């Protein structure tokens, strides 16, 4: 690859592959691509090549879980001076749940 050519330019998808499917399957494929916020072509490539298809929901859920974990750690640290055995058990129960 020459230095003037970007990586994305060198790997541009130029070959077209057509598939046949039912209207129902086509609708489901389009819905999955829309939910993942990727093109149908990208969805089909990832599925065929066993690559991960991450949905925005997964990313948002993970961000929320990380935020909640951070808040719990903050609360735990703030309560260290007044921590009782019962409170400590409650924090532990939440972590294991």
UniProtKB/TrEMBL annotation:
Highest taxon above the source species: Bacteria
InterPro entries associated with the record: MobA-like (IPR047751), NikA-like (IPR053842)
Classification via Pfam families: NikA-like
What is the protein name for this chain? Uncharacterized protein
Supply the source organism for this entry: Pseudomonas savastanoi pv. glycinea
